[in-house]
Design a protein that fits this description.
- The chain is α/β, with parallel strands linked by helices.
- Helices cover 31% and strands 31% of the residues.
- The protein is built from six helices and eight strands; from the N terminus they run αβαβαααβββαβββ.
- Strands 1, 2, 3, 4, 5 and 8 form a six-stranded mixed β-sheet that branches.
- The longest helix has 31 residues.
- The model has no long low-confidence stretch (mean pLDDT 78).
Length: 207
């Protein structure tokens, strides 16, 4: 008995898609690094006056609370700027479901929990803030010895923050030798954060 196995698969397409995601993941990491640099640059002692540090795990204060969010917003709102975007991990954003207060933005917590689009509702309307959440949870976790913190960032409008441009789009090249295929990709991005004061940071100890 002879069998003919035919495989019809867009191998190049799959590799390109994976590579693009890896490049975007690297860009996200570099952006987080830039945020951290800005926060430290606002204070000569590098303690970070733009950082709100919550280290009270013994009292169960290991999740995002309204008062912590208020402190984070005030790192910008109290410095002649206006907080416009909250940036965090999707897992950290779920802390909102622990709130016992009566509202999230302009919607009741109970309504959000019942709503099938609860997470989308939180992301799209969080009071005056735009919410950007990422599934890259590890990018928003910092460790200091045995201590571990979940991290939130807040930034102002792009007009007062900085600029970013795609200088060269994602470009691929391939090389085939016998039964081996070599592929590569690159992209050039230009970014500048012109105002270090436009970034605030909240760290909540979880372990």
């Amino acid at each position: 008995v002879e069998e003919l196995l035919a495989i019809n698969m867009d191998v190049f397409g799959m590799i390109k898609e994976y590579t693009e995601k890896e490049i975007m993941s690297l860009e996200d990491r570099l952006l987080i690094n830039a945020f951290n640099t800005c926060v430290k640059a606002t204070d000569p002692t590098n303690s970070g006056i733009k950082t709100v540090l919550i280290d009270d795990i013994a009292a169960g204060n290991n999740y995002l609370k309204k008062e912590y969010l208020t402190e984070l917003l005030n790192t910008l709102d109290g410095d002649r700027l206006e907080a416009k975007r909250l940036i965090c991990s999707t897992a950290a954003l779920n802390d909102v479901f622990k709130w016992s207060a009566n509202s999230v933005g302009f919607q009741m917590v109970g309504d959000l929990v019942k709503n099938k689009e609860a997470r989308n509702a939180i992301r799209s309307e969080f009071g005056p803030l735009d919410v950007i959440s990422s599934i890259k949870n590890d990018y928003f976790i910092e460790k200091d010895g045995v201590k571990e913190y979940k991290v939130f960032y807040v930034v102002t409008d792009n007009e007062f923050l900085g600029k970013a441009r795609e200088l060269t789009p994602v470009t691929f090249y391939t090389e085939k030798k016998k039964n081996r295929i070599k592929m590569g990709a690159y992209e050039n991005i230009g970014m500048v954060i012109a105002n270090a004061r436009a970034v605030g940071k909240l760290m909540i100890r979880t372990k």
